[in-house]
Every structure is written in C-alpha cells, then in structure tokens.
Amino acid sequence: MAACMKFTQRVWKSFIDTKGHDAQCFPHLRILRARPGVVETSLEIQSHNLNRVGTVHGGLLLSLTDTLGSLAVASRGHYMTGVSTDVCTSFVRPAGKAGDTLFGKATLTSLGRQVAYTRIDFTNTNGELVAYGTHTKYIGKSATDPKNVKFSDDGETIVEGGSAND
To answer: N or C: which end of the chain has fewer CB within 10 A?
Structure first.
C-alpha cells in the first residue's frame, strides 16, 4: 500500500478513535484512494443519514465537506489537519437514499504556510454531481506537528519524517 494512502487512513482512524462527530455520523466511510492532494471516498448511506423525506440530509454533506477537506490536507502529510475557518456546501440534487453509495473526491487546491483550501465533489453511483463544497483551514500551528511527513511526488514513499510505524 502506498505511503500516502496508509498515512491518510491512519489520520482517519485517529478521527474515529476519538469517538466524536465523525464516529457518530459516518463511521463506515471508506477511503478508496489517496495520493498527495487528493482523497477519494465512499459511504453507504444509512437510515440515520436521512432527512424526513428519506433522502440524504444536507447536514451530512456539510459534515463530509469538513471531514474530507481535512483528509485532503492529511494526504499532503499533515497529521494534525488544522482548524476550519470556512466551510460551504452547495446542493445540486438529492444525494441518495438508504442503501445507496455516496462518493466523495476531496482535492487540496492550495496549501500555504498558514492556510489550506480544498474542494470536495460528491457524486452518486451514476457519476452525477449531487453536491460540492469548499473548506478552508488554518494550518499554521499544525504544519509543524512532529507526526507530519513528506511524501514522494507520487505518494508511494515517505521521504521525510515518520517512523517505522508510519
């Protein structure tokens, strides 16, 4: 498994292990692929992810925008992914019902010394765009976390930082 994928999964596991919001809302989120700056996921929609009309609740998509934006930052080697300064999600069409699969693709559009910008696209099983969002993160303090790493351009190996367990 590529180093970037392994590291991003490790960061996701740390989100789940805190037993907070992510663990309550979408513990079955799967990371399908991760390369530096891009993370692709899938989520089987559960009944607790629905609104009162039986489709995906907008709050789920907004929460996923936040979380997947953080994972896009992690895919560039940041173990601590900073804090949100702005999160926005636009809804294009119903995102599905219980049992459907929702796909997310998070792209890190810019990573500076203090701020990271991400865009997240959500699609259904037909590949149709159902929602998209942006997530801005302040990463100033987290950029120097000792658990951070640097990957090769293709994300296959860690070229700086890390340990034998990374």
So the answer is: N
Contact by Cβ (8 Å): 106, 120: yes
- Residue 9's identity, in one-letter code, is Q
Quote the CA–CA distance of 33 and 40 in Å, as a whole number. 5
Helix (H, G, I), strand (E, B) or coil at 20: coil
Q: Is the pLDDT of residue 164 over 90?
A: no
SS3 percent helix, strand, coil of the chain, rounded to 5, is 25, 35, 35
Please give the Cα distance from 74 to 62 (Å, whole number).
Answer: 19
- How many residues are present in the chain? 166
Tokens of 19: 């037993």
Q: How far apart are CA 77 and CA 56, in angstroms?
A: 31
Tokens 């070229």 belong to which residue? 159
**Within the chain, how many helices (H) and strands (E) appear?**
3, 8
E strand or H helix that includes residue 66: helix 58-74
